């Protein structure tokens, strides 16, 4: 049985740096999305760029725990987006274009998998562990 201190989730007030960095992150995401959507119709790329700038690869203003939470919420959003796409698919349209739909599905799944297998063999970049093995073998030579 867990003690009272382990069972309760204590509230700790975040630092002003944390509040400001998260607030600036969310505001900049929305501003970049709005501006790029109006100018170039590609607000998503602005959001990706801002995420890289604020995250581990950039200024590291967002800690890794928060990045993991954002990633998990993104996965949930992706699942819901795919589910919504399935709900809005017309069965009559799918039946009328079954060959084209099958070709698109096979291309979307098999071609990236095939490219990853080819790249793994050619350049040792198929998986992070493959990259590490290649780097270690280069260091020894």
From TrEMBL:
It is a multi-pass membrane protein. It is found in: Membrane. The chain crosses the membrane at residues 39-57, 69-86, 98-119. Keywords: Antiport, Ion transport, Membrane, Sodium, Sodium transport, Transmembrane, Transmembrane helix, Transport. Residues 44-121 form the Cation/H+ exchanger transmembrane domain. It holds the Pfam family Na_H_Exchanger. GO terms for biological process: proton transmembrane transport; sodium ion transport. InterPro entries: Cation/H_exchanger_TM (IPR006153), Na+/solute_symporter_sf (IPR038770). One of its GO terms (cellular component) is membrane. GO terms for molecular function: antiporter activity. PANTHER family: NAPA-TYPE SODIUM/HYDROGEN ANTIPORTER (PTHR43562), SODIUM ION_PROTON EXCHANGER (EUROFUNG) (PTHR43562:SF3). This is Cation/H+ exchanger. It comes from Penicillium roqueforti (strain FM164).
